[in-house]
Amino acid sequence: MAKIPFQAARGTRDLYPEDLVLVRHLERTARNLARSCGFAEIRPPLFEETRLFRRSLGESSDVVDKEMFSVPRRGEAQGDSYTFRPEGTAGVARAYVNGGFAARAPLQKWFYLGPMFRYEKPQKGRERQFNQFGVEAFGSPSPILDAEVVDLAMRFFEALGFGAELEVRVNTMGDAADRDLWRARLAEYFEPQLEQRCADCRQRFQRNLFRLLDCKQAQCIELNAQAPRLKELLGGASAAHFAGFLEAMRALGRQPVEDAGIVRGLDYYTRTVFEVHYPQLGARSALCGGGRYDGLVEEVGGPPTAAVGFAIGFTATELALAELELPPAAQLADLHAELAPEVFLVAVTDEDRLPLLGLAGHLRAALGVPVLLDYRDKSFKAQMKEAGKSGARWAVLLGPDERAAGEVVLRDLQSRSEERVAQEDLAGRIAGATAQA
Ligand code: HAM
Hints:
The protein is of the alpha+beta class. It is 41% helix and 20% strand. The strands form three sheets. The chain has an eight-stranded mixed beta sheet, with helices on both faces. Strands 13-12-14-15-16 form a five-stranded mixed beta sheet, sandwiched between helices. A three-stranded antiparallel beta sheet has the order 2-4-3. The chain is elongated and about 95 Å long. The mean pLDDT is 95.
């Protein structure tokens, strides 16, 4: 067998037309829901200056430390680099600042769909290029907005058919002063245990203390049980915000699980943080992560601006959907149908091929549906077979007799009935039959 010389890069996938049926369904579900909640689409560039991510996600985050896809810059900025976005929030916050929204229309609700890039070790649910659906709402500190954002994430999953399998885990990262106090208490608590903890924890102790709390190693999970909790150290304002968030969640009929281990891997979070998990996926069970980031806009050059958002990862969502045999087939039927032609044109003799080409152009323009014909010089019989296999509803046959009479044979491939139709009436006849069906 011949050797295949090239493969898609490790951690990336080709999405073939059949695979795109599900992806397109996720995208349209996202768009419809986002619009219904007043979020408008934004499309920032796929790469940004590297320093934007360093500044916003934090030097000590795994993403910045180990997972950036960076490209050196040339010319005047030699020495600097660009980085393909590992996530969407930083770029969207930068776009908010550059667009001058804080001064003229501070309340903005935006959503985005598209690829993100992280140089991670590929494994189940983790890729180097993956798609996210994200929302970001700027300009309000209200905990009601936090609850609405979490509710939108859950409604996305419910629209796909998920039920009680999903768990919303919530926590608060408090305000900066709360975190300073907490950091000091955690350092005192963790230091004497470092010998008993995993190598990752020992390393993170210096760089990103909070991440010890979401370590997935059994012995570390046990050691975390008695760790000081931020909730007990919260100042009045951030405690009231968290209580307001939980109350708004209950008003929406949601029962989130409070989980002190939700600390998120990116530095910009303040107050509310949350994740949506499908626990059956194991250690990588998060389908969605998000929270409030009231300091980020200022960090990237704007005025102090409250903001909250989330991102849903399609990779883990697709895995969970596959396990649950979701979404129901009926939800995908129209997208599957789009893969098949509506009309297949069949030449009886070689002289009929060029006239058919003209007819194809006419039908495509008049009907706006997929019209196919043979490009491989197949015999009449082979073309008929291909028309049948293609899933087309109609076959249109043109032979010397029909050509002489300015007609075609229109065959309904479902009912197997056929009739002769004047070429000029063909588009109308097909449109009429489709409208009746
Ligand atoms: P994140 O938790 O880093 O948050 O990513 C959100 C989701 O993207 C994860 O729950 C996961 O499903 C998916 N994801 C992350 N990395 C990978 C990967 N390598 N392969 C496949 N899927 C992955 C953020 O990205 C924040 N920007 C969310 C946010 C928006 N916070 C506020 N606004």
